[in-house]
Amino acid sequence: MKLSFRVNSKIEVLDVEPLTPLIEVLRDRLALIGAHQGCTGDNCGACTVLVNDVPVYACQVPVCQVDDAEVRTVEGLTADAERLAPLQEALAKAGATGCGFCTPGMLMIGLALRQRQPRPGPEELRELLSGNLCRCTGYEAIVQAMLEVME
Amino acid sequence: MSTAGVVLRARKMSTVQAERGVTPPIDARDKVLGKAAYVDDVAVDGLQHAVVLRSPYARAKILGVSLDMEADWEGITVVTAADIPGENAVCIGESRDWPLLASKGVRHEGEAVVVLCAPTLRAARAALKRIEVRYEPLEPLLDPRKSEDNSVQIFGQDNVFARTTIERGGPRGSGRWIECEWQVGAQDPVPLETHGVIAKPEKDGSLTLFGTMSRPEWVQQTLREALKLSTVTVIQSVIGGGRSCRAEVPVQLAAHAALCAIRIGKPVKLQLSRTEQLRYTAKRHPLQVTLRTQVDEVGRLHRVEARLLLDGGAYATSSAQALETAILHALGPYHCDSVYVHGVVVATNRPPNAALAEFDIAAMHFCIERQMDQIANSRTLNPVAVRKVNVLRGGDSLHTGDVLRWAVGVEVVETAERLAKAPLVAVRRPGPAKSLPGQGVGLSLCCLQPQGGGAVSVELRGEKIRLLVPYVDAGEGHPTRFAVLVSRALKVPISSVVVRPMDTSRIQPSMASPPEIQLALGRVVQRLVKIVAQEVGSRSSDFARLLKKRTSTKRIRVEEPILPREGLSVAFHAAIVDLLVDPDTGEVTLRRIVTTSAGRRPVHARMSQIELEGAVGRAIGSALSEKLEVGPQGAWRVSGMGGIPKAGAMPELVTEFILAPDTLGPAEPEDGVGGAVLGAIAQAIEQATGAVMRAVPMHPEQVLKALP
Ligand code: FES
Ligand code: FES
Fold first, then answer.
1. Do A33 and B34 touch (CB under 8 A)?
2. CA distances from A124 to A138, B1, B6, B430, B594 (A)
3. Which CATH architecture has domain B39-139+190-280?
4. Which of B113, B160, B161, B228 is most buried, judged by most C-beta within 10 A?
5. Of B37, B643, B648, the CB nearest to A127
6. Is the domain covering B451-561 a CATH 3.40.50.10610 domain?
7. Cβ–Cβ of B29/A123 closer than 8 Å?
8. Closest CA relative to residue B209, chosen from B233, B186, B227
């Protein structure tokens, strides 16, 4: 199946099996390795990307569903590696990266929540992050860093 | 176990609040950019993909392996035990009982029988279905108690992998006896990234392995003995968490990938699926403990008798080490002169378990902390007071004979009590109206044995200082701490310090602990300053100034051995947990956890704090949400990744560090906090409901069952 969608503002036209999980297409076809696969699906959130600004588990979305859509991955957060995006800067500065495997997913869910109005407060933020697991940090550093950016 | 010489009473301590806005981790930029290279992120030309055919039976004879000749085997390479040129054994320290691939029989569900590789993962998985292994199933032994009885023999004469007894002081005449049984089920460290390895044959006949291996020396030894490969380089990838669980299983994976790679002369990747990782990889040894304690009217311990039974699973691997850790922590942070401790690790037909220090220490503390609560109950004493009466003091000796040079058990509890008096900041998820509030206290002690070994090197290349350190990081941030230490000592910006990841072609692996490495780095840096001063003919010790004077561009490399610490490195912790229990559903809602931790002065307080918060999170996960059930053939049936709590389940966290006397070699302040948290959660549930929690995990069903 021929598909066309935008990834980080770049148009991609691909010939792929329609049911291939989006995560596989991003990683194997487009070499966007930032989103990770941490579980068998629906659990860890390491694969979180935005599809039309909505956070999704890329391991659960068949690629045919993003036909014509706009996909954003961690690679699209900043165009210039010297200048991190505010959320990236905040997580790095707070030391909230641990092993870093959850980090790209956290950044993408963080970006989606940052765009929400009204912005979530600390308790709501914790609840909203519950679909993204982190074993290293106990979340506190991540939550604080995100709140800083959201203020 | 060694005896430390110097005795020092706890001396005046100051407390540190971890400051914010300090040096970010040196690898943070790559990680937030999504550029950090985990195994599965690395593109290698001509990469082949390996998968493993695993036994569906817990115990069976293998009658034969055959390929479906109707299938297309073009481009597919199949490897069995018969293809191993040397000894069919994974080298885990001295242990050699675990085969690379099963040959005559299997001893646990999920045991590797065949490995194959193909140009794509899909093709490899499809080919796996076209292989038939014929088994003759045998009655499995899944219960460690039955294994201890020796009614069925599955290992040696007595099913025992390791056994240790320690006796100090004789039985005492007086006091009341309290006997209890405690259990801590298996725990999975649940790293977010599964284990993975890429094996790449080099033109010169050597082999390079890249991946999530934290014990490169075991990989090298295994490939030397099993594959007769003398030149093997092990390079660590960025590792997605769980350093301790990266020791055993990745050695076997590395050997599987290597077998294929050598055979076809192409690079081969083997990465476990999440299901394989959850079901078949090593967990912390399930632990059963019988504790008999004799106490006086104030709850002081007169005699402690502990019997420990650990389920080692099908192969010994690092069971002896897990037992050693459990025995060393058998009395937790408490002192008693009259002690009998007996521990045994037995074989069962379950996937082999591994020594996982953080969890091993926490598990033992759950038992001893629960016992302290029952001592308090039996005499209607205050549980905090009972702890204070018994907690180790500086100069006390452990049951192992090690003398503690400093101990601040009382101080950590008192600091935690003070912190816990503050009103709860935000009552998170207040829970149903009739939820019962409970508050519990827990203590823990973390002892690290002196290890030493290997060396650290610094290289001065122009303005850059490169550190070669025998440490495999899986996200604990020690490389950042090494860099901070060196940049501070030399007064150079952290950006000029580079820490190389583990690479055996440049760094000799070592068991040394981070504090030991830090001490060696301190020495090596001093030597570097002297060498540069000599070179520029100066007496100054100001490195920045010396560098400015330096005109030579010659590379300077200085090496310094890592010496084992004298005596144990220890850290003390207290935790106070506030929670709510819904008496109808048994649901536990954590509201606040206060921890106080005493250890060495953290090199990077912020990083220690985050590590500590992570460890608290893992303890919460194993206490309340982890679900590891045993399948009919003994492998784990795990629903989700319960060992990691969700963000919304995390309580308010208040942490404080107390500095121990620096020069005496305490552990990092975050080491071993989990035990205090486990104990405190159990006590708080008991305080709220009267339910005596005798086992971990403490799911709602278990809480309901334990209600009086
Ligand atoms: S990989 Fe998608 S949720 Fe875990
Ligand atoms: S940083 Fe390791 S899982 Fe989040």
1. yes
2. 16, 50, 52, 14, 22
3. Alpha-Beta Complex (3.90)
4. B161
5. B648
6. no
7. no
8. B233
| Among B274, B476, B618, beta carbon nearest to A39 | B274
Q: Do A33 and B22 touch (CB under 8 A)?
A: no
What does the buried/exposed string (b/e) look like for B591-607 if buried means 16 or more CB atoms within 10 Å of the residue's CB?
bbbbbbbbbbbbbbbbb
Q: Is B67 at the interface with chain A, CB within 8 A?
A: no
Ligand 2 atom nearest to CA at A142: 4
8 Å CB contact of B646 and A44: no
For chain A, residues classed under CATH 3.10.20.30 are 2-76
**B1-36+409-448+567-708, CATH topology level:** Aldehyde Oxidoreductase; domain 4 (3.30.365)
Residue B232 has pLDDT above 70, yes or no: yes
User: How far away, in angstroms, is A101 Cα from ligand 2 center?
Assistant: 5
Distance CA B514, CA B452 (A): 10
State the pLDDT confidence band at B429, using cuts at 50, 70 and 90.
low
Q: Is the confidence at residue B235, as pLDDT, over 60?
A: yes
**Tens digit of each residue's pLDDT (9 = 90 or more) over B318-339:** 999 999 999 999 999 999 999 9
B529 token code pair: 């300053």
Check if B238 contacts A (Cβ < 8 Å). Answer: yes
The answer to whether B32 faces chain A, any CB pair under 8 Å, is yes
Which residue would you say has higher pLDDT here, B357 or B423? B357
Closest chain A residue by Cα to residue B620:
A138
At residue B639, the pLDDT reads 78
Q: Where in chain B is the domain with CATH 3.30.365.10?
A: 1-36+409-448+567-708, 451-561
Separation of CA A134 and ligand 2 centre (Å): 4
B236-267 confidence digits (pLDDT tens): 999 999 999 999 999 999 999 999 999 999 99
Taking each helix axis from N to C end, the angle separating A86-93 and A103-114, rounded to the nearest 10 degrees, works out to 130
Residues lining ligand 2, CB < 6 A? A 97-102, 134-137; B 192, 241, 475
Q: Over 60: is that where the pLDDT of B598 sits?
A: yes
Residue B275 near chain A (CB below 8 Å): yes
- Quote the DSSP letter at residue B587: -
Confidence of residue B10 (pLDDT cuts 50, 70, 90): very low
- Tens of pLDDT, residue by residue over B650-704, are 999 999 998 887 555 678 888 899 999 999 999 999 999 999 999 999 999 999 9
Looking at the domain that runs over A86-150, which CATH code has it been given?
A: 1.10.150.120
Classified as helix, coil or strand, B465 is strand
In angstroms, what CA-CA distances link B357 with B160, B229, B360, B509, B689? 21, 31, 5, 19, 32
Residue B658 host element (H or E): strand B652-659
Q: Which of A42-56, B302-316, B599-613 has the lowest mean pLDDT?
A: B599-613
Distance from residue A142's CA to the centre of ligand 2 (Å): 10
Domain A2-76: assigned CATH number: 3.10.20.30
Q: What is the pLDDT of residue B207?
A: 98
Q: What is the pLDDT of residue B2?
A: 31
Query: Å from A83 to nearest chain B CA?
Result: 10
Interface test with B, best of A109, A126, A133 (most B CBs within 10 A): A133
B316 and B348 Cβ atoms separated by less than 8 Å: no
CA B236, distance to chain mean position in Å, is 18
Q: Cα(B67)–Cα(B424) distance, rounded to whole angstroms?
A: 64
What ipTM does this complex have? 0.98
Would you say residue B4 has pLDDT above 70?
A: no
Is the pLDDT at A98 greater than 70? The verdict is yes
Residue ranges of chain A assigned to CATH 1.10.150.120: 86-150
Distance B20 CA to ligand 2 centre (A): 19
> Do B215 and B321 touch, CB atoms closer than 8 A?
no
